[in-house]
Design goal:
Radius of gyration: 16 Å
Number of strands: 10
Distance between the termini: 19 Å
Largest sheet: 6 strands, parallel
Strand content: 15-25%
Oligomer: single chain
Length: 193
């Protein structure tokens, strides 16, 4: 599956897809899309950290809310995130522990921009869930210093402890009727995990 083919599928679903050659190009695209006067929120994202977009928006003067400002981020004009996985049909899949990120992606924030590295594109929903539970969550658990089973073994144990990172799974098939613009920046580079 090429990024061009996936872009056509996303457009048919109502998203606004853009293909970017690199993370740097994706950051430049975000700066060209979001007006300098608008507020911006974001969830936790290694991808967004790698492209340095939070710093660029703050330097430019945007009011910026990170994952520690859950309520304010949910009330922003724009919300930035990556995806844990995206299927070849254009389904956007995320798993969250607190649901602050996924709730802002599906309701309340009128404009959303996903930044998705090519490494996150998988065949179907089964592959998406497997990728997230047995790869992404392990790396995030280690990065965040969690003591979940996946942090130790590298595999999901469907744990139920307080530190569980897999409390909510969302699959976005189309933008919701309350959203104005949902961009998906497909990046021809490996970003995040």
């Amino acid at each position: 599956m090429t990024l061009e083919e996936l872009s056509k599928k996303l457009k048919a679903r109502g998203f606004i897809p853009e293909i970017c050659g690199s993370g740097k190009e994706a950051a430049e695209k975000i700066l060209s899309i979001i007006p300098a006067a608008d507020s911006v929120g974001k969830g936790g994202s290694v991808t967004l950290s790698q492209i340095g977009i939070a710093e660029k928006l703050a330097e430019r003067g945007n009011t910026f809310f990170d994952r520690n400002s859950y309520v304010e981020a949910a009330g922003a004009k724009w919300f930035l995130s990556s995806a844990n996985a995206m299927t070849e049909n254009g389904d956007i899949v995320n798993i969250d522990g607190s649901a602050n990120r996924v709730s802002s992606l599906i309701f309340g924030v009128p404009n959303v921009i996903y930044v998705v590295g090519k490494n996150k594109i998988v065949k179907d929903l089964d592959a998406a869930i497997d990728r997230i539970r047995n790869y992404t969550c392990h790396l995030n658990a280690v990065r965040l210093g969690k003591s979940t089973p996946c942090a130790i073994t590298g595999k999901c144990a469907y744990c139920t402890g307080k530190e569980c990172m897999c409390n909510v799974t969302t699959i976005v098939h189309h933008p919701t009727r309350y959203q104005e613009n949902v961009y998906v920046l497909l990046v021809d580079e490996e970003l995040g995990y």
